[in-house]
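Lab notebook, bench 4. The sequencing result for the construct came back, and we need a structural model before the next group meeting so we can plan mutations. Quick request posted to the team channel:

Model the 3D structure of this chain.
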Amino acid sequence: MKAIVYRNYGSPNVIECEEMAKPTPADKEVLIRVRAASVNALDWRFMRGKPFIARLAFGLRKPKMRPGADVAGYVEAVGRNVTQFKPGDQVFGVCRGAFAEYACAPEDRLALKPDKVSFEDAAALPVAATTALQGLRDRGQIQRGHKVLVDGASGGVGTFAVQIAKSFGA
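Done. Here's the predicted structure in token form:
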């Protein structure tokens, strides 16, 4: 399979497309045949190796993971302990290495893709929408009648923040 990789931190010039083996899902993982993946600020930061403290988890001198977090595609295979999905299901969610023809994701990081939502639209949701939801609901404890200012409402997280705030009655 083809996959986007980077062996050093830096500018977009460090990105390469390489041929590698198709991954095998672990017991609670799903193998996804990727139809769409989105690029977000998380990917850019990891490629640059910033913030520096994140390198403790993702590789101090060189990255230890492939880029791409947001994914949408078809379930190709499932690990032996997966109960929610079966081959052929259309899913979207978060994984590591989404910029490839195939990627594995934990079962609990995926959801069935609604039929009326395109793969491209579904792949644009997970990180940005989850970030907005966690910020408003969990950290901000948003309630009906609250006033919310979304600085950067035209960006990925901001677009979802406006819609989520409205759905909470703010």
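The helical segments are 41-48, 55-58, 119-123, 126-139, 156-167.
Will bring this to the meeting.
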